[in-house]
Design a protein that fits this description.
The chain is an alpha/beta fold and about 250 residues long. The chain contains six helices and 13 strands.
């Protein structure tokens, strides 16, 4: 896969750890395999998902965040530790974690390949990664855009569908076609178990009437299955695993 040119400016993303969204996203991760063991929440922001991982079964969770001021409001639990650092240079030993959550982070890092290579290094053989990043099939760019000195701070319709060379001139973060994101994960050495979409839940931006939002949320499982809608989620979820090598042959535990 050819290298991707980053946007001119990549700003940190806003936290997405709102209660319904956290429960929805972790439910999709745990449906494949329950969370257990030692986990890294890479790019943890204010620690909302770090706490949720600990409460959902992980025995130990480390939240890593480059912007340490975001950790001031993080909830502390005995099984949680917070640390500062960059995804491209993780301050952990190799083979340290049973799992890694990379939730809406890859689109903001300076170097995608270096970040995924570092995550591959620190995951135990047989351990897994749960990665979520913006989906180009979704017809709105949730990060807004930047036009010179003008900052657009609301979702921009159809921006993800523009040719990459045009969209990246104004985008404030990357987004991905599912095939491109799968390619990046595979190039890092992971074996993909599943690739799904994650739908918006209208929690941070409740633009619809409350009864309509509740009705829509009940329909999400159906929308995720229907051929006409299942590709249109706001984000892509990739569940992948670091292979275990037995006699030089890769296998999964």
């Amino acid at each position: 896969m050819p290298p991707r040119d980053p946007p001119r400016y990549i700003e940190p993303g806003a936290p997405t750890a709102h209660p319904f969204n956290v429960a929805y996203r972790l439910r999709k991760i745990n449906a494949a395999e329950p969370t257990a063991g030692r986990w890294l929440d890479c790019g943890c922001a204010d620690g909302g998902y770090t706490r949720a991982l600990a409460l959902s079964g992980a025995s130990r969770v480390i939240g890593l965040e480059a912007e340490t001021d975001r950790l001031w409001s993080a909830v502390r639990l005995p099984e949680i530790t917070f640390s500062s650092g960059l995804g491209e240079r993780l301050p952990f030993r190799s083979d340290s974690f049973d799992g890694v959550l990379l939730n809406e982070v890859l689109e903001h890092v300076a170097d995608e390949q270096a970040t995924l290579a570092e995550l591959f290094r620190v995951i135990l053989p047989g351990g897994r990664i749960a990665l979520m990043s913006p989906n180009r099939w979704f017809p709105f760019e949730g990060h807004g855009m930047r036009l010179g000195s003008l900052w657009v701070n609301f979702p921009v319709p159809l921006l993800p569908w523009l040719p990459m060379r045009l969209a990246h001139r104004v985008m404030r973060a990357r987004n991905y076609w599912p095939g491109d994101l799968r390619g990046l994960v595979c190039e890092a050495g992971f074996a993909i178990d599943a690739c799904q979409t994650v739908f918006p839940v209208f929690e941070a931006f409740p633009w619809l009437p409350a009864p309509v939002i509740q009705w829509y949320r009940h329909l999400i499982p159906l929308l995720e299955r229907l051929p006409i809608t299942r590709h249109l989620g706001v984000s892509i979820l990739i569940l992948a695993r670091k292979p275990v090598y037995v006699d030089g042959v890769a296998s999964n535990r």
